[in-house]
Amino acid sequence: MSKRKIIIDTDPGQDDAVALLLALASPDELDVLGITCVAGNVPLSLTQKNARIVCEVAGKTDVPIFAGCDAPMRRPLVTAEHVHGKTGLDGPELFEPTMPLAGDNAVDFIVETLRREPAGSVTLCTLGPLTNIATAFDRAPDIIPKLRELVMMGGAYFEVGNITPAAEFNIFVDPEAAEIVFHSGVPLVVMPLDVTHKVLATKDRVAALRALGSKVGVFTAEMLDFFERFDVAKYGSDGGPLHDPCVIAYLLKPELFQGRHINVEIETESKLTLGMTVADWWRVTDRTPNAMFMGDVDADGFFALLTERIARL
To answer: Which of 84, 197, 243, 261 is catalytic?
Structure first.
């Protein structure tokens, strides 16, 4: 099986960091062409730093990392330090990364890469707000039909919202960008809260990562020790949900997930429901389906995959 070429667009975030580690631990299946950073969970100055920290922890310093958009397309930036801590990676002892950023802007890298690579060969994996992607699509619409697909973490239907009563964080931060992406015609696979809230980093699952005894295993466990405290207090769950790694797990084992090909629209005007993903799960409209919207996951299979791959680093 040939490797899948991917670009990971991210705003690390502990769960983003785990997604990056899962991808970096899977070189037989995934060819990470680059990591592009966007403002989201924390400002861009920290997301680009955190991506470099994660790559250095994993010993993968040959992956180019690019800084992209530092604010949403039309709105002030909303961040989530209340979830991720002031660094975005609170939990483990952090350090100043030494690997440099790559020279190009993230948006330029996305455009140039998709124009250079064969049509249908590159998958975009988005773990944060869609600002970089929508900016690239706006600037260079010719790249859209060249994509193999876009697999994203974002949105919700049955779980509704986690930053407002109606909206999931990634979509809420830049709903105009999300609207551009969902209307672009690109093949979309969506990992909403409906799936990610079933992938809980329980004490036993975190303990299994710590028990690996490796630098990466302990680093991951320490991140999750911090990360889970917010959602456990909020939802009364047995552990914090690992949102973003679902994107990478889908590329490695799509059979872990189940969903429906439906229409999803983005609310950009209502003060009450701004950023809501209006998912026609029950197909009650005649709107054309535009996304494979996932609804279920094999959580045990997910954590078995994650632990096995983290053990490789």
So the answer is: 243
Low-confidence spans in the chain with pLDDT less than 70? 1, 229, 231
Q: What is the pLDDT of residues 177-211, one digit of tens each?
A: 999 999 999 999 999 999 999 999 999 999 999 99
- CB-based contacts of 38: which residues, under 8 Å, 6+ apart? 9, 10, 11, 44, 47, 68, 69, 106, 128, 129, 131, 132
240 in Cβ contact with 179 (< 8 Å): no
CB 191 within 8 A of CB 153: yes
- Is 243 an active-site residue? yes
Nearest to 311 by CA among 224, 199, 210: 210
The amino acid that residue 190 corresponds to is: V
**Using one digit for the tens of pLDDT, what is the confidence trace for 78-135?**
999 999 999 999 999 999 999 999 988 999 999 999 999 999 999 999 999 999 999 9
Does the bond joining 40 to the residue before it have cis omega, within 30 degrees of 0? no
d(CA 144, CA 208): 41
Looking up tokens 């060249």 gives 146
Residue 64 has a CB neighbour count (10 Å cut-off) of: 17
Report whether 292 contacts 260 (CB < 8 A).
yes
Quote the tokens at residue 302: 């997910």
Nearest CA to 92 among 251, 219, 260, 236? Answer: 219
Q: Which phi and psi angles does 63 have, rounded to 5°?
A: -85, 125
Helix 245-252, helix 299-310: angle, nearest 10:
90
